[in-house]
Amino acid sequence: xxxxxxxxxxxxxxxxxxxxxxxxxxxxxxxxxxxxxxxxxxxxxxxxxxxxxxxxxxxxxxxxxxxxxxxxxxxxxxxxxxxxxxxxxxxxxxxxxxxxxxxxxxxxxxxxxxxxxxxxxxxxxxxxxxxxxxxxxxxxxxxxxxxxxxxxxxxxxxxxxxxxxxxxxxxxxxxxxxxxxxxxxxxxxxxxxxxxxxxxxxxxxxxxxxxxxxxxxxxxxxxxxxxxxxxxxxxxxxxxxxxxxxxxxxxxxxxxxxxxxxxxxxxxxxxxxxxxxxxxxxxxxxxxxxxxxxxxxxxxxxxxxxxxxxxxxxxxxxxxxxxxxxxxxxxxxxxxxxxxxxxxxxxxxxxxxxxxxxxxx
Length: 361
Hints:
Elements: H1 8-27, H2 38-48, H3 62-77, E1 84-85, H4 89-106, H5 110-118, H6 123-143, E2 152-153, H7 156-175, E3 184-185, E4 188-189, H8 202-219, H9 223-233, H10 237-256, H11 273-290, H12 294-302, H13 306-324, H14 338-355
Antiparallel strand pairs: 1-2, 3-4
Helix pairs in contact: 1-8, 1-10, 2-13, 3-7, 3-8, 3-12, 4-11, 4-13, 4-14, 5-6, 5-10, 6-9, 6-11, 8-12, 9-10, 11-14, 12-13
């Protein structure tokens, strides 16, 4: 049977569904202009596990768990679960860490950048321009032979690792639910205020995550890939899904009274435009070198891709570094060491791009 979601109208439909559901999750309790943010939600998971102690961003986000498990369900249903690994796992881990650091300087991944724009946050324009610039630099490396190595089939156990880790996070959440007024329950930390304390009901968030994971696996939805394909090949297939997400999130926000245009006073955002731009240059470059946006890496992990799983773990650990070492931004502006981290991250990513090119034989 033909995969409708891989067609032009299919990916437009998936983008529309994600845009609508993201806006609804915000209405149901998720932070402002953050119905879905892969980087922010992985940062919250890192906090809940105690990898950082920023008390305002600690919560096991069910949406992330749902993305991986939903993708795995789709992959098994349509015989696309293929456990595989490639090469350079430490490079993928480092790229994941710096992708997270860049995203937290901006305060959002590509998904949140477009959702911030759909909510009226003008600062997102700088982030999206930076994202495009970073991906463009990445395509220059791709054109000149950059490659992390071929993938090869491996044991099913490898493909199950990240889904099992996510299932473990869900079990921990059920075993140690939040206790009113307490910042810790068993082994998990919970925010009592700030973005981490704002969340949709667990069951609804998990169901939405499962649905998006399922649809994204079928459609190959990827925000980074949308821009890369236009730059490299002039193809607009993935871009139509990307644009559909923006349009339908905007329309839903408008209907729900969640559209508030402007630059100042936007939720979980700052107005240091140079570093909004530069943070997403770093994130976009890291995503391009790793082969997918943070959402796509989760969906690939659900399909059994061990390389994507290493990138995801790099992002979670990177979130811990970002908050422990003062790299992450806040509504007040960039963290005390965030600017230095962006510069170092760009140097590291450029080093990886220049040194991991195959010479023509």
